Amino acid sequence: MSPVVETDVLIVGSGPAGASAALALSTYGVPNIVVTRYASLADTPRAHITNQRTMEVLRDLGVEEEVVARATPQHLMGNTTFCTSLAGEELGRVRSWGNDPLVQAEHELASPTRMCDMPQHLMEPVLVNAAVARGTRLRFETEYLSHTQDADGVTATVRDRLRGDTYEIRARYLIGADGGRSRVARDAGLPMGGQMGVAGSINIVFEADLAQYTAHRPATLYWVLAPGATVGGIGAGLVRCVRPWSEWLIVWGYDVTAGAPDLTTEYAESIVRKLVGDDEIPVKVTSSSAWTVNEMYAETYANGRVLCAGDAVHRHPPSNGLGSNTSIQDAYNLAWKLGLVLDGTAHSRLLDSYTAERAPVGRQIVTRANRSIRETAPVFEALDGLAPQTPEQLWANIAARKDATGGAEKQRAALREAIASKVYEFNAHGVDLNQRYTSGAIVPDGTPDPGFPRDPELYHQPSTRPGARLPHAWITSGTRTLSTLDTAGRGRFTLLTGIGGEAWVRAAREQDVDIATVVIGPGQRYEDPYGDWARLREIPDAGALLVRPDGFVAFRHPAAAPESAGDLLADALRRILGHA
Predict the structure, then answer these.
(1) Is 376 exposed, middle or buried (0-12, 13-18, 19+ CB in 10 A)?
(2) HSE of 165 in the Cβ direction (CA atoms, 13 Å)?
(3) Crossing angle, helix 120-133 and helix 16-27, to 10 degrees?
(4) Is 425's pLDDT higher than 90?
(5) 3-state DSSP helix/strand/coil percent for the chain, to nearest 5?
(6) Contact, 307 vs 175, CB < 8 A?
(7) Label partner for 190 (CA 20 to 30 A): which of 184, 221, 380, 469?
(8) Which pLDDT score, from 0 to 100, does residue 256 have?
(9) CA distance linking residue 358 with residue 351, whole number of Å
(10) C-alpha to C-alpha distance for 467 and 552, rounded to whole angstroms
(11) Residue 147 φ then ψ, to 5°
(12) Where does residue 265 rank: exposed (0-12), middle (13-18), buried (19+ CB within 10 A)?
């Protein structure tokens, strides 16, 4: 066997979770190796919706601008359309992904970033290239086989698929980011809830100029109510725009109990024709694949020095566009903690907060994504389209909604209501941004949990209470306008205070941990000309917020620093870093 290769962190998998873990670790100066059994990065679009929280992560990691340059912008994503085919009858639309005027305002207020559509085969190279440029060592055609761990590290056995030989990689920690059939999670014995294979789906990627059917109603998703659309799949037939308006991906269901159909080119083209509704337009099928709808989540994300992220620990359909977002956010949550443990700043107990904080998020998004599939059924119910019937009967039901009768009027109302209810899939802003962590890496301030006055799935509700993400507000520094989020991150803690909070600043500078200090107020380095920060901070000027490297509030004090401010801050840091 070849000599053992050594590193601080071994990452198995180069998808969104593995690539972003590598990027964050290399940004923080942590040596890491990524291995992937494949010969290249993703070659199909797969995940694509990129929400505001993920864009904030990419902003902090220095790749936001490149993603924006390559992605489909938000304004071309939002006319989610329900139809009988792209060329057929339109049944209704939902203003989606922040494009409803009222939701757009919520997005503007919530973050300095904009969501976009960034297909996985474009996202992965951005993440991986930046990671490698900053120090990550990447090994293609390298298959993870097994691992053992001891008190000091993990030894993984991998196989070079080109040479055929095996060798060992010795790491202080192992991250399993190897997808929905994760061997690392299996070998680590992570307990799982839910089940795999609850329905069957097919992806068909194809090229066709569909501008005549889509450019006037630009959208990421076009939902097709056609005969057979309720069998398996994700609730209906789906035509997804990969690149406007020439590259597409279709999702179509199959009966999982009968097994996947033979994915011949002829079969794939027949599905494309059915959903597009135009037999004359030139179509080129580039790939097709079968997959299953899953509803499974890990109850714990770690076993000793082995930690898993992404689809390895939450497996669900693409509904709500949560998969790659949650994967990238898992990695971002984990990377700074590993960095501080590895350099001795934090105790290994800090890593316990990874499961405590991210497992509830994983379970939530698995539940939300699968619920969104079920919430498509009322659209069919409004058209009496769920009962077994001939295609002719479904078309007759659809046509009947145009009649000038009381029954047709009720049908139209039911259809409008059913389509409008899909807001929980296409505009679930709270699901994207409302994470509230409870763990040893959060110091409670004794205030009662206020809950969420508005629907927590639909509406983002900012807070500075410990465990919440630092709220965004536009502030200024000289001639520069920046977000409060821009003052935090970059791998270090940040203390925010205002006029009268000078003692907090001195206390922060006395700590052994690197803490950036930010004073916001008239005449200070940072000013609040709109008063937005004053309205959001929930503490007086002289109070203090200690923000973690991932942008979450870890400690809050409502008043000017007492004489014991240094001790208060030191005690908070001991608790956050696992030393207490």
Answers:
(1) buried
(2) 6
(3) 30
(4) yes
(5) 35, 25, 40
(6) yes
(7) 469
(8) 92
(9) 11
(10) 6
(11) -150, 155
(12) exposed
Is the pLDDT at 386 greater than 90? The verdict is: no
Burial (CB count <10 Å: 0-12, 13-18, 19+), residue 524: middle
- Round to whole Å and give the CA distance between 457 and 469: 16
Indicate if the pLDDT at residue 217 is higher than 60: yes
Supply φ then ψ for residue 59, to 5 degrees. -65, -45
Length of the chain, in residues: 580
Element (H or E) spanning 419, and its range? Answer: helix 406-420
Instruction: List the one residue out of 192, 232, 419, 241 whose CA is nearest residue 317.
Output: 232
* β-bridge pairing 192-207 and 154-160: unpaired
Report the alpha-carbon distance of residue 464 to residue 553 in Å, rounded: 6
Predicted confidence (pLDDT) per residue in 281-336, tens digit:
999 999 999 999 999 999 999 999 999 999 999 999 999 999 999 999 999 999 99
Whether 4 and 170 have beta carbons less than 8 Å apart is answered as yes
User: If residue 196 lies in a helix (H) or strand (E), which one and from where to where?
Assistant: strand 192-207
Q: Which residues pair with 237 in a beta bridge?
A: 224
- What region, left, alpha or beta, does residue 141 occupy, with left being phi > 0 and alpha being psi -120 to 50 degrees? left
What does residue 334 show for φ and ψ, rounded to 5 degrees?
Answer: -80, -35
Average pLDDT, the chain: 96
| The amino acid at 340 | L
Residue type at 254? Y
Confidence of residue 226 (pLDDT cuts 50, 70, 90): confident
Hey, what amino acid is at 475?
A: I
- What strands lie across the sheet with 544-547, from one edge to the other? 515-520, 493-498, 544-547, 553-557
> In the predicted model, is pLDDT for residue 565 greater than 60?
yes
Q: Which residues contact 576 (CB under 8 A, 6 or more apart)?
A: 350, 440, 441, 442, 443, 546, 548, 554, 555
Asked if 542 contacts 560 with a C-beta cutoff of 8 angstroms, the reply is yes
- The set of long-range contacts for 396-405, using a CB threshold of 8 Å and a minimum separation of 24, is 398/84, 398/89, 398/91, 398/225
Residue pair 133/149 in contact by the 8 Å Cβ criterion: no
Cα pseudo-dihedral 304, 307, 312, 314, rounded to 10 = 90
- Are 219 and 241 in contact, with CB atoms under 8 Å apart? yes
- What is the pLDDT at residue 393? 84
State the helix-helix crossing angle for 323-342 and 352-374, rounded to 10 degrees: 180
Contacts of 409 (CB under 8 A, 6+ apart): none
